[in-house]
Amino acid sequence: MPRLDLVCVGEPNVDTVMSARGESLHQGGPETNTASAFVKLGGVAGLVGRVGVDRYGKFAKSNLKKARIDFSHVREDSNPTCRVIVETSPEERHITMVKPFCLSERLNPDDLKYIKRGKGLFVRVRHPLFKKCLDGVKGTHLQVYASTHYYRGPPGGQPAYDLRKYKLRAIIGSEDEMMVLKKYCQLPKHVILVVTRGAKGSLAILNGKKITAPLPVKAVDPTGAGDAFAGGFVFADLQSLPLKTCLLYGNACGAITVQKIGAQQDISRKKVEKLILKQS
Questions:
Q1: What pLDDT digit, counting tens, does each position of 200-251 carry?
Q2: What pTM did the predictor assign?
Q3: What SS3 class is residue 43?
Q4: How far apart are CA 150 and CA 217, in angstroms?
């Protein structure tokens, strides 16, 4: 059976990016961006998700193939492929959903078997399959990485998650997202909280101890920076590298991503390590 290091759960949406330079079509989706960075560093990643039976679904699958992300568990759905318009500048971005995510609340038995083949699982807290994924991998060897990407609290009327029931390796997100998560969810004691802070770099908190890793860079387009950071951090962590080094890997992936238009850039382990060395 082929090696599989990381499985990401989420939909590979298609981004129309609008900037001062014009309009362009790019592959998007937080989990897809994370898997892309992970693979470019030398890891093997797969995606569990859905696309529509439309030209955007074909576009997404073609890009997954080019990115060398295993998409054998990206299924076609009767719903349209998610499309997003991203209006971006070096300072900010505005995101508009054109077509909704074709999110599935089903996790097929073979999807779960596929997830368990990996060394790590990456899934967003706000994804409908979040709890089912975590319940499905209980008691396994998997390192679980939870993303707070766009987490704004539990959906209307639903209870917040008690994450103390699960063995999480790390929770990754921005400062604002992490504050919301702490407000609504009960967190495990020994989880690594990994906080992205834009141009200020990143911060990890474990058992009350803080580790910081600054890596300032001039941004052209911030789209996908946090996703690339997650790919770099998870890659380094699954290599059992020191926590500070994991933060630096994440920072470097994010820094490379923001220097051009689009969420997925030409990341490589050589470029990342060169950037880390330059900042040392």
A1: 889 999 999 999 998 656 544 455 688 999 999 999 999 999 999 999 999 9
A2: 0.89
A3: coil
A4: 23
